[in-house]
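User: quick one, fold this
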Amino acid sequence: MHRRSAKALVAWIAAACFLGVAAATFWWPGQAPAQGKKEPVRVANTPAASASSSSPAASASSAKDLLTKPATARATTQPVYDIEPFERTDVYAKASGFLAKIHVDIGDRVEKDQVLAELSIPEMEQERAQKEALVDEADAAVGQAQAAVDAAPDLIAAAEAKVREAKARLAQYQAEVDFRELEFQRHEKLHDSKSIPDSLLEEKRKLRQAAQAAYAAAVAAVDSAQADARVEQSRAKQAKANLRFAQARLKVAKANLRQTEVLLEYAQVRAPYAGLITHRFVDTGDFAQSAADSKAEPLFTIVSDDRLRIITDVPFDHASWIRSGQKATVTVNGINGRQFAGHVRRTAGVLDPKTHTLRVEVELSDAADGIRPGMYGSVTIAEDKQR
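Assistant:
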C-alpha cells in the first residue's frame, strides 16, 4: 500500500513538471494574451516580405534615386615608354656630289630652309653652261621665225600686186589681139578685091600672130603671178608654223636649263622645317649619294621638338570611352615626377589585333620645359562625362 502511494506521487510530480515546461515554451518571452484580443502574426524579415510590405510610392522613390545618382568618372593610368618628337627626319642629298661646306652640327637649332651643307658638283656647272647656249640658239631661231612671219604680209602683198600687173598687161594684149584681128580681116577683104598686094596682107597676118603670142604670154604671166601669190601665202603659214616650232624648242631649252638649275640648287642641303639637329653623319670632303640612289645614306637627322608625341597603349577594357580632347596628365620620370597637363590629341581608332590595345597620342597643353624626347613616365586619362 505504501509503495503504490509513492509511485502515484512520483507520477503526479512528473506530469506537473512536463506541463510547466510546455507552458514556458509556448508563452516565452511575452506575457499571456488578454482575453478577447488576437496576437499579431510575426512575419520573417526576408527580401520577398520586405518588397510586399513596401508601398508603391517608396518603390518609385528608390528607383528615381538610383537613376539620378551620378556615375563615377572613369580614369586610366598607363605607362609611357617613350616620348617622341613631333617629327623626326633623316636629311639626304638630292644630288650626288662632294661636301664642300658643312654649316651645322648636333645640338644646333635651325630654321626652315636654312642651308645645312653645300655640295660641289662641277659637271653640273658645265651642263648648265651648255644648256644656256642651247637656250640662246633657240631664242635666235624664234627671232628668225618671227621675222619671217612679220615679212609674210608684205611678200603676199607684193605677189598680189604682180598678179594685178599681169592681169593689166593681159587686158592690154587682149586689146592688141582684137585690133590686129580686125586689121587683118580688113586687109584680107582688100586683098580679095585686088586692092593691095600679097606682101601687105602677109605683113598684117604676122602682126596678128605677134599680138596673139603676146596675149598668150600675158596669160602665162598672170598664172605665174597668181602661183607666186599662193606660194607667198603658203610661206606665211609655214613661217607661223616655224615660229610655233621655234617657240616650243625655246620652251624645251629653258625647261632643260631650269632642271639643271634646280639640280644645282640641290647642291645646297636645306632644313625641311625648323628644329634641332640631333645627328651628323658626314664630314667635309665626303661624297654624298643622291637620295634616288639605293646606297644613299643620310647626312643629318633633324627633329621638331616644339611639340612632343606622348604615346601610350590603352587596354581594351578602357578603350571604349577614350575620345580626342579628353584631359590627360603626364608624369615624367627623371625630373622629380613633375606632372604636365595635356589632352588626347588623336587615337588609332582601332585596337591592335596582337596586343588588343588602343594606340593613344597625348599632346601637352603648354610648353613642356624639361621634357626631352626619349624620356618616359606615365599618363593618366580622365573621362569627360559631358562629351
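User: anything notable?
Assistant: The chain has two domains: 77-121+274-382, 123-265.
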